[in-house]
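Technical note accompanying the year-one report. For the benefit of new consortium partners, we illustrate the data format agreed upon in the data management plan: each record pairs a sequence with a structure-token string. No post-processing was applied to the example shown here.
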Amino acid sequence: MGEFDIRWKQRFQNFDRAFVLLRSAFEENDIEKLSMLEQEGVIQRFEYTYELAWKTLKDYLQDNGNTILPEVTARAVFKEAFSAGIIKDGQVFIDMMLSRNLLSHCYDFAKFKEIIQLTKVQYLPALSNLHEFFIERVMA
């Protein structure tokens, strides 16, 4: 068991908790009826779930001998994960990355609502598939 094996499994524990919290925001609420403050909370959950998703992927790929070059970025990690067959729709992860980057510089509530809808319709299903991938490997 290598250093990265332990790292990706530890990071997955955090991703797992973050993903479950993000998913529960959509399962337990009518997002449209949430206050602006609550919607900001959903955005926050998306942001840290996204961050943990790509970093868990990075650690998993490195543990399995994949080299992420020329530099370790979310985009490079998603490309490598797509090439390795871990993620099926690379574009949705690139879109997720672009949405996350936009949120760092944007305080536009219309954009928040748009990204919440994208999360519900596109990002959450993709993150769910990734979550299942990791669950299967952790249990193995």
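Partners are asked to follow this layout when depositing records. The first helix runs from residue 3 to 27.
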